[in-house]
Design brief:
This protein is α+β, with helices and mostly antiparallel strands. It has 4 helices and 13 strands. Strand 3 and strand 4 form a beta hairpin.
């Protein structure tokens, strides 16, 4: 449904949200027809903008089932297979009578320049001004790096990560028993076609009964630009 006004698209499911932010695209199933074109994505109905996106409808399905979901859609849905994707759909909607599949892709992200800057300094510890696509800014110092090249994975994707330290603890919407820290990660997926979209993540401790359960890494947003801070600044 094309329209001159395209409302924001909501990604409440963490797996679909991470697929979009980490890879620059996602296929999403909806039970209602929606507007298409250039818009932006957010995690909740009243949440802040995560990233600018373009929404395109690729299918309208009567009486949908797992067989209606193509393998190539499922692979980029965040769920891996049509059966796993369908289980997630039924968990939210029950057995739907109709369905619409949309391809959502990020835009206005200078991903190659950002990744090149991070990769070239992976053996160093520079400080950067990071600007997200929603125009929030952070100052971070790069620490360790991890690189797993795409050719080493049968699944067709590798990854590059830089552990970073924020100059101040970022503001993160937290679930109960979660505690923010001043560290985080910049992560980007590598495929045969090149780098995906670099994403800034906070590092949060999940603590119960004074015991650390695990570290969690909620996404703050996709990175639009990155600029190294000179020593004289």
């Amino acid at each position: 449904m094309a329209s001159s006004h395209v409302g924001p698209i909501i990604f409440g499911n963490q797996r679909t949200r991470e697929q979009l932010l980490d890879n620059g695209e996602v296929y999403t199933f909806r039970t209602s027809d929606r507007t298409t074109g250039d818009t932006w994505a957010r995690a909740t109905r009243t949440g802040e903008k995560l990233v600018d996106v373009t929404v395109e409808q690729v299918a309208s399905i009567d009486d949908p089932s797992p067989d209606s979901l193509r393998d190539e859609w499922a692979f980029r849905s965040g769920f891996g297979t049509p059966a796993q994707w369908w289980d997630a759909i039924e968990e939210v909607h029950g057995p739907p009578d109709t369905g619409y599949v949309y391809h959502v892709e990020t835009r206005n992200v200078e991903r190659e320049d950002v990744v090149a800057a991070l990769f070239e300094t992976r053996m160093e510890s520079p400080t950067y001004h990071v600007t997200l696509d929603d125009e929030r800014t952070f100052e971070v110092t790069a620490l360790d790096s991890t690189y797993e090249p795409v050719e080493e994975y049968d699944e067709g994707s590798g990854y590059f990560e830089r552990t970073i330290e924020f100059d101040s603890v970022p503001d993160v919407g937290l679930k109960p028993d979660r505690y923010p820290t001043d560290v985080g990660v910049i992560a980007v997926v590598e495929t045969d076609d090149g780098w995906g979209t670099p994403t800034l993540h906070a590092a949060v401790q999940h603590v119960e009964d004074d015991e650390l359960v695990r570290w969690e890494y909620p996404a703050l947003g996709t990175i639009a630009t990155i600029q190294e801070v000179d020593d004289g600044e």
